[in-house]
Amino acid sequence: MGRIVVEVMPKPEILDPQGKAVMGNLPRLGFDQFTGVRQGRRFELTVDGPVTDAHLAAAAEAAETLLSNPIIEDVVSVTADTAAAAAADPDCEEA
Amino acid sequence: MTRIGVITFPGTLDDVDAARAVRLAGAEPVTLWHKDAELHGVDAVVVPGGFSYGDYLRCGAIARFAPVMDQVIAAAERGMPVLGICNGFQILTEAHLLPGALIRNDHQKFICREQRLRVESTTTAWTNLFEDGEEIIVPLKNGEGNFIASPDELDRLEGEGLVVFRYLDNPNGSARDIAGVRNARGNVVGLMPHPEHAVEPGFGPDSPTGARQGVDGLRLFQSAISALVGA
Questions:
Q1: Shortest CA distance to B119 belongs to which of B107, B111, B128?
Q2: Quick check: B57 and A67 CB within 8 A?
Q3: Taking the model in full, what pTM does it have?
Q4: ipTM beyond 0.95?
Q5: Is B118 left (phi over 0), alpha (psi -120 to 50) or beta?
Q6: Residues of B tagged active-site
Q7: pLDDT by position in tens, chain B (length 231)
Q8: Of A25, B53, B159, B176, most Cβ neighbours within 10 A?
Q9: How far is CA A66 from the centre of its chain?
């Protein structure tokens, strides 16, 4: 089993009310070293067998059409998760 | 008789009220299902409010790819009047039939109240019976009604007169107090507040004429009939 990770973040100039709410509460828990929080999304897409370039291309297209809204969000990354491949394939542990 | 379709997605809440508004305005409501591959000969479509597909991912993002939306998008591009209310507005922006996007209210809270609006554009299929600058009151209820677009896009909307409704007391942080917008042609309109909840005396918002007497929402639906009959 292969896994592709897609990360989507709100555009920098777009207000992120969720990140703001998290930021507002961190100091109350003693975390006063952080000056900002932005909240995005991580998607994990699984495929049969190892991740191919075709899988990655399809994931990139899905990321642009459904997983993100280009008006308010950026697709930050679309990457094969090699750790997932290693976990699924014991032979990889020797590499 | 003018036939106006009202779409039901899984999670839609306001389809019955929208159909009732269509009937009270004098048209025949036609129920459309999210899996419909055709529009059953309707003359116009209302995409009503609610939480389509649970609003998972983003509001309206999944609904935009429902089979019936392929037909709605094609019909809208041919000039059919399409109105998106609340979740329906979110769906129409996700479908790129309308500009901008709707994000979480700036104060993070769900808001439910009677909302004063100013009508900014009366040359649309859904607002031709209003007067420019007229103030109306319709209910508003949403958690993600914060209209947003890039500064350039907002300038374009203002410059081309594509803002249809503006909040008189902005309830959710919407850019430039925008409550509703239109496409260039004027057949597609979307707004976050709910005109379908202000269509019958005794059941609407309070108005200058008395408690629960507000029927300002009815004219959106009557406008569509007027546009279709006059066409």
A1: B128
A2: yes
A3: 0.93
A4: no
A5: beta
A6: 86, 194, 196
A7: 999 999 999 999 999 999 999 999 999 999 999 999 999 999 999 999 999 999 999 999 999 999 999 999 999 999 999 999 999 999 999 999 999 999 999 999 999 999 999 999 999 999 999 999 999 999 999 999 999 999 999 999 999 999 999 999 999 999 999 999 999 999 999 999 999 999 999 999 998 889 999 999 999 999 999 999 986
A8: B53
A9: 14
